[in-house]
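Task 17 of the worksheet. Students: predict the tertiary structure of the chain below and write it out as structure tokens. Keep your answer in the requested format; marks are given for formatting as well as content.
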Amino acid sequence: MTIADLDPSRFLARLHARRLGRNFMYRPSCASTNDEVAACALAGCAEGLLIVAGEQTGGRGRRGRAWHSPADENLYFSLLLRPALPAHLAAPVTLLAGAALAVALAHLAFTPQLKWPNDVLLDTPLGPRKVAGILTEMASEAGRVRHIVLGVGINVNTVEFPEHLASLATSLGLVRGQRVDRGEVVAAFIDAFEPIYDDFVAHGPSAALAEWHRFAKLGKVGWVDRDGGQCEGIAQGVDASGALLVKIASGDVVFLHAGEVNWLPRSA
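Model answer:
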């Protein structure tokens, strides 16, 4: 099976990052790249391991949802991180990754938007559609991060989606009107993520969250599904912990650490 745009030597030749992604592994097929990287993490692999799959048979997103992972069309990859941080400070990593992916896609002449906590959207003639999602899974010990598996799924060259996704999803190729080089996309992401991540570990999340806000879809009336019901209001931004700040009808601002944002059809 040819992997062409994901050939390791070709990928490494275009990668500018110093550490992350330099240990690159390609899997023609696997159940989940997150599971593959987690197993390598437990075996002692160093930070920066990147595993990319041609397809996933058990790919997953947030809340245990299946991730549509057809063969040889899209990007399914996971990156091993070992930040020297207390576990309670690691939550913003998902937002960091979203910011880096938005920077990378903008560099490739797309116009991404970020929807808290882990979705990347692109405009289409029928409105914003999801093009990528991020799933981070952490292991900790004695209150400190042991490792984080950062999983990213990007719809790159899919042209037809299952019925239940057709009104929600798009791909880079559909938006551009031609096939997109997957290796170029993942290299652009790693190159954008490494400096954001290094700054986060050294100085905290403020710089990365400023990038996230630059691309964020904010200021619209919506609701957040969360444990205990729905919270309706206007998304104002995120704080240093990664929580979404929502201004509700009373004028108070509530801090949401988990949930899923849904936009109402009217504007704020």
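Marker's comment: The radius of gyration is 18 Å. Residues 101 and 189 are 5 Å apart (CA to CA).
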